[in-house]
UniProtKB/TrEMBL annotation:
This is Dihydrofolate reductase family protein. InterPro entries: DHFR-like_dom_sf, RibDG_C, Riboflavin_Biosynth_HTPR. Gene3D superfamilies: Dihydrofolate Reductase, subunit A (3.40.430.10). Residues 72-168 form the Bacterial bifunctional deaminase-reductase C-terminal domain. It comes from Deinococcus lacus.
Amino acid sequence: MFIYCTATTLNGYLATPEHSLDWLLSIPAEGVTPGGFSYAALVMGSHTYEWVLAQENLLAQPEKWAGLYGDKPVFVFSSRDLPISAGADVRVLRGPVAEHLNTIRQAAGEGNVWLQGGGELVGQFLDAGALDEIILDVAPAALATGAPLLPREVLWPRLRLLEARQSGEFARLRWRVERLG
Ligand SMILES: NC(=O)c1ccc[n+]([C@@H]2O[C@H](COP(=O)([O-])OP(=O)(O)OC[C@H]3O[C@@H](n4cnc5c(N)ncnc54)[C@H](OP(=O)(O)O)[C@@H]3O)[C@@H](O)[C@H]2O)c1
């Protein structure tokens, strides 16, 4: 399954326009329960990847990569040549998502694929019929503008609620995404 799991502001932003996550990192993590799903491969856009590289100083300290991602393949969508943390299994993809689905599915085998965002990239997976679940940690915060959670029109009954519960200061919500046709 392709699972989009992310934290979001209550009004549907992932980050500020400058890609800052300070609004998220300032919220205490006590009582927050972890993801609740297993995954065998990850997908992210270039800004998300570059944020993690910088935040964790992964180019200077590549040994930290395994602590974050283990040896799981990480697919990064970008039109640019991106720096890669030494020893990391990072595969840069570009162009239509549909053309890369087989590659990603093969890398994940029987496992799930964690779509980390941003929203426009996940929207492309939705467009390609490759979005099965959305798991959100909705934060007690709003931003006036920023990187959108999912800039697409997706109406009920395509989304079916599977879970809604408290997770520390966050609200954990989970929906199944029904395939079209
Ligand atoms: N709140 C959270 O937990 C959370 C989770 C995820 C992300 N974030 C943050 O949210 C923000 C997301 O920002 P975003 O939506 O602008 O970023 P993004 O999805 O991380 O990156 C967008 C970039 O992905 C590349 N891309 C997307 N589709 C592509 C395609 N089909 N082919 C080639 N390249 C493609 C392009 O990169 P190039 O410009 O390199 O070509 C595009 O500029 C980031 O700041 C990230 O750190 C927050």
